[in-house]
Write a structure and sequence with these properties.
It is a single chain. The protein has helices at residues 12-29, 40-48, 52-59, 68-74, 122-137, 151-160; strands at residues 31-34, 82-89, 92-101, 106-113, 141-147, 162-169, 172-178. The longest helix is centred in the N-terminal third of the chain and has 18 residues, at 12-29. Strands 1-2-3-4-5-7-6 form a seven-stranded mixed beta sheet, sandwiched between helices. It has 194 residues and is of the alpha+beta class. The protein is globular and about 35 Å long. The chain has a single domain (12-178), classed as 3-Layer(aba) Sandwich (Aminopeptidase), CATH 3.40.630. Bound molecules: coenzyme A. Residues 5, 19, 54, 57-58, 110-113, 118-124, 146, 150-153, 155-156, 159 line the site of coenzyme A.
């Protein structure tokens, strides 16, 4: 497993250099592939790799198992109104990011990385891939709902995107996220294989 991002001093430049080095290592180790409706096993493996705390952060509720209805909605992927990209290392799925169309020109962003791989730059890698896909799909804005206590999610989103607005609703933050830039020309995201 790649070394975690562990800043050793308060220097922003130093921290950024370490983060960038870790991200480069993750780029080598991790492959991203778009998922399709037959990828339920990938959804299952990633869900199984989340601790109860991570599941709580991801679904904003205690979730001990994936109900059939939730599993169906997580695999209702059409490559347009619901897109999911998964990170794999040595063939094993370790994280998923998804964009769900909100019917108002915006998409909702959600991401999870299995606990064993958290803090290694995988979430950042997935969010970069999601940003490229969001640009391709024509989104100008994404929204993200994260719990106020979810510093990791806020940091990961902020590392990749410009957050234009944060609204608090009780224990949740609603993030408005600008989608900017061109899709990376050398993006290693593999298209959905039919
Ligand atoms: C949020 C999540 C996807 C981040 O993925 P990750 O692979 O751990 O994140 P990265 O290693 O790419 O780190 C991204 C940033 O988060 C920071 N971070 C990571 N874990 C952190 C933690 N526990 N507390 C505070 N910051 C943290 C990193 O330092 C980095 O910030 P920096 O670039 O400013 O240094 C992952 O923690 C996760 O799956 N959590 C459970 C599900 C969830 O909360 N999903 C979001 C709601 S939809």
């Amino acid at each position: 497993m790649n070394a975690a991002i562990t800043p050793t001093d308060d220097s922003t430049a130093h921290r950024d250099a370490e983060s960038d080095a870790a991200t480069t290592a993750v780029d080598r180790l991790v492959r991203i592939r778009e998922l399709g409706p037959d990828d339920g096993d990938v959804v299952d493996v990633v869900f199984a790799g989340l601790s109860s705390h991570s599941r709580y952060l991801r679904f904003q509720a205690p979730v001990t198992e994936l109900s059939a209805a939730t599993r169906r909605s997580l695999t209702a992927l059409d490559g347009r109104t619901h897109v999911a990209l998964a990170a794999f290392t040595q063939g094993d799925p370790i994280g998923i990011v998804r964009i769900m169309d909100l019917d108002d020109g915006r998409g909702e962003l959600a991401v999870e990385v299995v606990d064993r791989w958290q803090g290694c730059g995988v979430g950042t890698r997935l969010l970069h891939a999601a940003r490229d896909r969001a640009v391709e799909l024509g989104y100008r804005e994404l929204v993200g709902e994260v719990l106020v206590v979810n510093a990791a999610a806020y940091a990961a989103v902020r590392r990749v995107f410009r957050i234009t607005r944060v609204r608090r609703h009780g224990s949740e933050l609603m993030l408005s996220i600008a989608v900017e830039g061109e899709p990376a020309s050398a993006s290693p995201v593999q298209g959905l294989v039919a």
